[in-house]
């Protein structure tokens, strides 16, 4: 199909659309908001700072996956218009 390493293979268009439009779970968003707000008021404990780092890393990974899903949808649409 594709030699492009960024294309997500094995997912339907519907699955790609759901992934591209996905959102962070409300509980994770609330925890992130809480840690950020507390961090603005005072330094976070080492445990909370580590948790915030883990959440931010997770969000970065999720954002990259969503971007790859959008890219794959455009890639598939472009292929459909070429045929």
List the keywords.
mainly alpha, 3 helices
Polypeptide structure, described:
With 83 residues, this protein is mainly α. The chain has one domain. It has helices spanning 13-20, 26-41, 46-82. α1 (13-20) runs antiparallel to α3 and α2 crosses α3 (46-82). The longest helix is centred in the last third of the chain and has 37 residues, at 46-82.
Can you summarize this structure?
With 83 residues, the chain is an all-alpha fold.
- Per DSSP, the total helix count is 3
Strand tally: 0
Distance between the termini: 14 Å
Please state roughly what percent of the residues sit in beta strands, choosing from under 5%, 5-15%, 15-25%, 25-35%, 35-45% or over 45%. under 5%
Q: Which regions are unreliable across 5 or more consecutive residues at pLDDT < 50?
A: none
Order of SSEs, N→C?
A: HHH
Biggest sheet record: none
C-alpha-based Rg, rounded: 18 Å
